[in-house]
Amino acid sequence: MTKLFLSLSMALMATFALAQCPSPTNVSVSATGPYTASFTFNLNGGQSLEIAAGNTGFTPTQPTHGMSNITTSPYNRGSMHASRTYEFYVRNNCGNGNFSPWVGPFSLTMPPAPTACAKPTNIQVSDIQPYSVVFNMNLNGATHFDMTAGNPGFTPTQPTHGMNDLSTLPYRRASLHQGRTYEFYVRADCGRDNTNVSEWVGPITVTTATVSE
């Protein structure tokens, strides 16, 4: 009987210890633009914060991808959708699989994008090689752009694989075929979401060089 009592007591103590991960406090969320949400919080003794984001009425189970191991307040989360309403839940991670209960929901409606996403201008092509070509352009305030490529006469719809949410300029497009004529189109991707984007600009016709024998 004594052993049973001790076993039950130890199990209760272990359960109680796991339940001691404190919840975060002083949590608030606000929009700092159409595409960025800013979170402030107090870890209240926890090791790091986790955030789950979803539509109104969702049930949190796991943190949203990229929204864990947060230790610094404020925490800014980009790639949000303009004019969309989100609900957020937060919890502390105390280590060793010990988490606080989810706290929330915190509701936030992102503001609309103030202006249309401007088209890229001053598009330049240089260093045409057999298998690559370099592009440069003015993004007119955007930080990312998409590109699509195809045979002459094609209609652009979606970015070509590997040519979405590009941010480096000049940009070298590799993996081309020698001696082939391509048409390229580019657009600004202001929301990095394939939604808040400019019109496609093009076609930009490029014929790659031929390898000399």
Compile the SSE list and pairings:
Layout: H1 2-18, E1 25-33, E2 36-42, E3 48-54, E4 75-77, E5 85-93, E6 103-109, E7 121-126, E8 133-138, E9 145-150, E10 171-173, E11 181-188, E12 201-207
Antiparallel strand pairs: 1-2, 2-4, 3-5, 5-6, 7-8, 8-10, 9-11, 11-12
Number of H- or I-type helical stretches: 1
Q: Strand order, biggest sheet?
A: 1-2-4
- Low-pLDDT regions: none
Mean pLDDT level: 89
Global shape = elongated
**Could you estimate the helical fraction of the residues in percent?**
under 10%
Q: Gap between N and C termini, in Å?
A: 91 Å
Assembly annotation? single chain
Report on this structure.
With 213 residues, this protein is mainly beta. Helix content is 8%, strand content 37%. The chain has one helix at 2-18, and strands at residues 25-33, 36-42, 48-54, 75-77, 85-93, 103-109, 121-126, 133-138, 145-150, 171-173, 181-188, 201-207. The strands form four sheets. A three-stranded antiparallel beta sheet has the order 1-2-4, with no helix packed on it. It is elongated. The mean pLDDT is 89.
Summarize the structure.
By secondary structure, the chain is mainly beta. The protein contains 1 helix and 12 strands; from the N terminus they run αββββββββββββ.
Q: What keyword list fits this structure?
A:
three-stranded antiparallel sheet; 213 residues; mainly beta
